[in-house]
Amino acid sequence: QVQLVESGGGLVQAGGSLRLSCAASGLTFSTYIMGWFRQAPGKEREFVGSISRSGRGSDYANSVKGRFTISRDNVKNTVYLQMSSLKPGDTALYYCAAYATSQTRVDYWGQGTQVTVSS
After folding, report:
1. pLDDT tens digits, one per residue of 86-117
2. Percent of the chain with pLDDT strictly greater than 70
3. Region 43-53: what's the mean pLDDT?
4. Were 50 and a residue from 35, 67, 68, 97 both cysteine, which residue would form a disulfide, CB within 3.0 to 4.6 Å?
5. Which residues pair with 80 in a beta bridge?
């Protein structure tokens, strides 16, 4: 079955950096757009960014643009989220997702990894 397994979350001070990974299995990885989403306590899940199937194109939410970078390795079936200049407002459960067409129609979700940014 399809599995998306995130890792790399943790506690970091404001201004610091973290890199999240999402290892995929059970799907033809290179045929899916990969996205990252997050959900803070009491808030709805929101789109963070995505990367095209080839890895040559990416898109980001305004709130993270210039601070976060998504990359992927289609040999290792892994997508990464490099986060820098972290703010307390970035504290959330971060999910990776795989979708064939649109971020509003996610085919597969990971279980999430917690990121906590202290001030």
Report:
1. 999 999 999 999 999 888 899 999 999 999 99
2. 100
3. 97
4. 35
5. 21, 71
For residue range 61-89, what is the model confidence (pLDDT) as tens digits? 999 999 999 999 999 999 999 999 999 99
Distance between CA 88 and CA 70 in Å, rounded?
20
Rounded (10°) CA dihedral 13, 83, 32, 102 = 90
Burial label, 42 (beta-carbon count in 10 A; 0-12, 13-18, 19+)? exposed
DSSP letter for 12, please: E
Mean pLDDT over residues 39-64, rounded?
97
Q: Which long-range contacts (CB under 8 A, 24 or more apart) does 54-58 make?
A: 54/30
The angle at the Cα of 97, spanning 58 to 37, to the nearest 5 degrees, equals 70
Q: Using only C-alpha atoms, what is the Rg of the chain?
A: 13
